[in-house]
Amino acid sequence: MDPLGGSAKILWLINVAIQAGLLTLLVWRKDYRRFPFFVAYLMVNLLQSAAFAILFAHSGYTSRIAWLIGWGSQGIVVAARACTVAEVCHHVLAPYRGIWAMGWRLLVVLGMIVLVMAVAFGRHDLHAGIVTLDLGTELAIASVTAILFAFAKYYEVPLREPMRMLGIGLCLYSACYVLNDLLLQRYLAGYVEIWNLVGMIAFLGSLALWAWAFRVAVEAEATKPVLLDAEMYPNLIPEMNRRLFVLNEQLSQLWRVESPRP
Question: What is the pLDDT of residues 86-105, one digit of tens each?
């Protein structure tokens, strides 16, 4: 059975066209210097689409080689998307070196947990290990972006474009992917075409957010946040910013990194 019906094929072509246009724009503006992992993610996604088109035309959808290349390339795509999430986190938190020192360590630990779970489930079943790695990574992506947004909201950390739209798009698609695989395909397996359509619509929504975020040239972001001396905070800035300053100073001392100065 062809998992891509007529409507899904049209959506697939639209997704490919938007990705190609967005990638061309980013390369032309040389935004790959600031967003190398996001650009790499778009590239491997397009390469996967091209490989699928060629492979399915010659070998069909149910061949062994299609399964191997499909899951193998999906692993690369998901890894690139995970790196894009880390890139967004870095852009938002790097000015606060103590906070970022904790953040990247948590990302590494989370990645190791997902990998260990995949190896454990895949010891006797390769398919189960691959599915666990895929789902675990998607769940981690959705969770990390949600936590980043909650942290930024609580401490009033500015989420400038395109980081805000990038994060929303990544969280949206990964959350839809997890919901699709854990619930919809398990209990409604007979409606494969519908859930492929749902996944493509979710990805199209993410692409629309990313294209909107990059519709204008991205301004260079400040490398240092404006942080005042501790004794000036109670009278000059809101309570949220004071707590962010204190948290950053404490984490800077914990990880032994130098906090940026105004």
Answer: 999 999 888 887 777 777 78
Enumerate the domain spans of the chain: 6-219
103's tokens:
């953040």
Give the C-alpha separation, 71 to 226, whole Å: 46
Percent of the chain clearing pLDDT 70 (strictly above):
64
User: Taking a C-beta distance cutoff of 8 angstroms, is the pair 91, 38 a contact?
Assistant: no
Q: Are 199 and 207 in contact (CB under 8 A)?
A: no
More confident residue, 160 or 169: 169
Residue carrying structure tokens 């992917």: 177
pLDDT digits (tens, 9 = 90+) for 196-231: 787 888 899 999 999 998 987 666 554 455 554 555
- Cα–Cα–Cα angle for 63, 68, 74, nearest 5°? 125
Residues 6+ apart with CB under 8 A from 80: 37, 40, 41, 44, 45
Rounded Cα distance, 127 and 75, in Å: 12
3-state SS assignment for residue 3:
coil
Which tokens in the block code for residue 120?
A: 């454990």
Other CB atoms within a 10 A radius of the CB of residue 226 amount to: 10
Whose tokens are 């953040």? That residue is: 103
Residue type, 234: P
Asked if 46 and 17 count as a contact pair (C-beta separation under 8 A), the reply is: no
Burial of 245 (0-12, 13-18, 19+ CB in 10 A): buried
Residue 96's nearest CA partner among 253, 254, 252 is 252
